[in-house]
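User: I'm new to structure prediction. If I give you an amino acid sequence, what do you actually give back? Let's try with this one:
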Amino acid sequence: MEKKHNIELVLLEIPITYDNIDEFVPALWETHTPKLVIHVGFSELAQCFTLESQAHRKGYKRLDYFDKTPPNFTCPAEGAMRIQTRLNIDHICEEFNNLSAEENVSASKSYDAGRSYGKWLEVTSMENIDRGLHQQKKIPSHVLNP
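Assistant: Good question. You get back a string of structure tokens that encode the predicted 3D arrangement of the chain. For your 146 residues, that looks like this:
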């Protein structure tokens, strides 16, 4: 796939701690300078591929691996309290659903994925875009648990 589409596919598993995400994600952006980033999380609640349209900076009360929460339950990333993707999620879902109708899988748009570590990662990542360091696009998603 990498040769065919002239891409570098970087697959990483990021530790689920707020501190690790705060350090790891900005370094990844600087190292790879991506044109597209897809964050994939798993949820047993998902009935289809769920594409998140936004991420929030406040409300992170869930304890991480080290039983910590962020100060004031807020991501320190600068910018708006709610950050929205610039991608047309409705169009992406429509195209995906048209192409995969026979395979019994579908995609839907979400406006609120909750306040989990994955969302913290997305806010941190989206903040790198909004700071003007990169003009790339990003899309968070949730995938069905196998």
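You can read the tokens as a compact description of the fold. Here is one thing that stands out. The first strand starts at residue 36 and ends at 43.
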